[in-house]
Amino acid sequence: MHKDLRLNDGSDLPALGFGLYKVAPEVTGEVVVAGFEAGYRLVDGAEFYHNESEVGEGLRRVDRDLLTVTSKFWGEESQDRDAVLRAFDASESALGTSIDVYMIHWPRPKRNQYVDVWRTLVELRDQGRVRTIGVSNFAQPHLERLIDETGVVPAVNQVESHPWLPQHDLRAFHDANDIITQAWSPLGRGRLLADPTIGQIADRVGVSPAQVIIRWHLQLGGALIPKSTNPERLRENLDVYGFELTDADMAAIAGLETGERTGTHPDDRN
């Protein structure tokens, strides 16, 4: 079973994909194949992950047409229009296929250039070079500025989110503006798997702690991209449609919120 979410551009996004951050290049192709064979239909990559050529190698071994392929603009050295176009061309060439979803990886607000970067993504979309454009790690003020200055609402905002950091206020803003929340680090970089509350729910339901957390994300109504290089774990993480968490389960998990991040705050990435 698969669940797709309708985007504000009229296309669909698989709610549950798999991420490739910190997946070593030498195993990336095999992970892509294993993810596809497990049943995933979204592969989340990025220029910064330094494994896009290997992602492309994996894509050539599966039915590419069944997959949504994501990449992201890094922009550490330059964020002008030409830099964005060069990065997009390089990612497309490395992947050896078209990019379905292209995102700004970080707003880098101190540089004050993310609106211009966004305008270039809009240009790529309007030229038909990419289907869907979105952002990653954008806080509400960054989103408000994009919308106010360009009139174009991102289809997706990929942000750190897990039971310690559910991002309820940001999710509410997304819902009000027809933006899909896509969670990275959805398992808290694996640290939440040992949480006793999660473990108790998992034992009662008869599933793994990871499956409990993934199901929690889905019941919040968003998307997520857990990562694993283990084929069995990939299959397990996708097997979350045969059970539901109760209201009491959701309330217990809500009680885990601390605001703790496992990654960088959006305002701190220069």
UniProtKB/TrEMBL annotation:
Annotated positions binding substrate: H105
Pfam families: Aldo_ket_red
Annotated protein name in UniProt: Oxidoreductase
Record site: Lowers pKa of active site Tyr: K72
Entry keyword Nucleotidyltransferase: no
InterPro entries according to UniProt: AKR (IPR020471), Aldo/ket_reductase_CS (IPR018170), NAD(P)_OxRdtase_dom_sf (IPR036812), NADP_OxRdtase_dom (IPR023210)
GO molecular function, one term: oxidoreductase activity, acting on the CH-OH group of donors, NAD or NADP as acceptor
Record's keyword terms, sorted: NADP, Oxidoreductase
Listed Gene3D superfamilies: NADP-dependent oxidoreductase domain
Organism whose genome encodes this protein: Tessaracoccus aquimaris
Family, similarity comment: Belongs to the aldo/keto reductase family.
Organism lineage string: Bacteria, Bacillati, Actinomycetota, Actinomycetes, Propionibacteriales
Residues annotated as the enzyme's active site: Y49
Domain NADP-dependent oxidoreductase: 23-256
